[in-house]
Amino acid sequence: MWSLAVVQDNFNRGDTSHNVRLMESYIVSCARDHPQVKLILFPELATTGYRLTEKVKDVAEYAEGPTFSHLSALAQKFCLYIGYGFVEKGGASLPSTFYNSMNFIGPNGERLATYQKIHLTPLEEHLFTPGRQLVTVDTEMGRFGLLICWDLAFPELSRLLALEGADVLLAPSAWEVPHDQSYRQMASARALDNVVFVATCNHTGRTDDLKFFGKSAIYGPDGRTLNEANREGSGLVVSKIDLGVRQQMKEGFFSMWRDRRNDLYDVRWKGN
């Protein structure tokens, strides 16, 4: 058994230095006040703030840019896994390509994965290129499946990650008013659909024409809320993750994996 933390706050648009300092303050306080936490997750585009203008490209970085280097050192210092959203520059052969991405750093400071958001919202499509790769990460705590925000609206992606063995889905988000009920229901449903844990964190405050409502939460494999942040307030949400409980649920009432009818489903859903 281990603990996971998700962060919600008002990350300033375009002010990477401020946002990284804010992230560092959460990492330091989490290590001090919650030493049982092994992984801390920050929202979508936490390093830049959620900004939907061309100016967001001015603060884009490569996956192993300055922000990664700073957070990598903190991951090593506090022996933590860290997940966070950022604007990713394409490679040298794709200089005009930008992605809405998530980095996943291990406690040795290594970049274990970079996930590029697959499902872009209509507000994002003019800025970012959609990703094309599913990403899971193996750790001593279990296997993680990576999503970002609007990806939660697509059951197919979460199911494919679960088919690849994900125990926990991580979904940093920037979900706006008035859609708080949909945000919570989709995250809960993806947990129950696949009998997995789901951790999602949201912004607070306002950017451009959007207002964010917080409600960051961690859900159990039965879709129940294990812990949830207050609406709009800043802070840290912590919950224990027990994969043994997940296995018990799969072997008990929540037997969907055992009872699936692969003989009737499309071949793409077969497996595991």
UniProtKB/TrEMBL annotation:
Residues 2-243 form the CN hydrolase domain. It comes from the Bacteria. One of its GO terms (molecular function) is hydrolase activity, acting on carbon-nitrogen (but not peptide) bonds, in linear amides. This is CN hydrolase domain-containing protein. The lineage of its organism: Bacteria, Bacillati, Bacillota, Bacilli, Bacillales. It comes from Novibacillus thermophilus. Keywords: Hydrolase. Gene3D superfamilies: Carbon-nitrogen hydrolase (3.60.110.10).
